[in-house]
Design goal:
This protein has four helices and six strands, in the order αβαββαβββα. It has two domains: 95 residues, Alpha-Beta Plaits (2-Layer Sandwich), CATH 3.30.70; 43 residues, no CATH class. It has a four-stranded antiparallel beta sheet with strand order 2-3-1-4, with helices on one face. Strands 5-6 form a two-stranded antiparallel sheet. Helix content is 37%, strand content 24%. With 171 residues, it is an alpha+beta fold.
């Protein structure tokens, strides 16, 4: 009797539990991207990044702030404590940037605010290299694309075989 009850309970919970291959994990990090064409890194740091940092330091539950400036571009990374509602932090960061726009040069574009997500992390990287057919000697008619990493996905292998058969049809 106890076995039957546990078995039925197990079946019910098995079909009612939600399963996700890639769960939506909120990464407590927000990035502010600044672009200013024809601006040196020092000028960008003094006129744009520094006033933005002074406003963004006031964001609630801020754990760490890193910034860097290059010629024509700047980046501010905001890290928050775990458990922070990133949607609310995203809204607050946008409000602080809007408040800081009064202190920035008039021709400065509004910085872009990007919220990090687990779906932004790539599953794999694919690098393709075009090789000259003379490197392979005689008998190679078309350039050959080599994968820099081994891919085991059957859909990608099937697509590669389909492309190779189409290439043979056009020759």
């Amino acid at each position: 009797m106890a076995f039957t009850a546990c078995f039925i309970f197990g079946l019910v919970t098995y079909f009612t539990l939600p399963v996700s291959l890639l769960p939506d994990i909120a990464i407590p990090e927000i990035t502010v991207q600044i672009s200013a064409q024809n601006t040196s890194a020092r000028e960008l740091e003094n006129t744009v990044v520094k006033p933005l940092r002074q406003q963004l330091i006031q964001v609630a539950r801020l754990k760490d702030m890193d910034s860097e400036a290059r010629d024509g571009a700047g980046l501010i990374r905001l890290s928050f404590d775990f458990g922070t509602n990133t949607d609310l932090a995203f809204i607050e960061v946008n409000e602080k940037i809007d408040a800081a726009m009064n202190y920035l040069p008039k021709d400065t574009e509004r910085p872009k605010v990007v919220k990090a997500s687990a779906t932004d992390i790539p599953v794999f990287y694919l690098n393709l290299t075009l090789k000259n057919d003379s490197a392979y000697g005689q008998g190679v008619e078309d350039p050959v694309l080599l994968f820099s990493e081994e891919i085991v996905d059957p859909d990608v292998i099937a697509a590669k075989q389909c492309a190779a058969s189409r290439k043979g049809d056009t020759a």
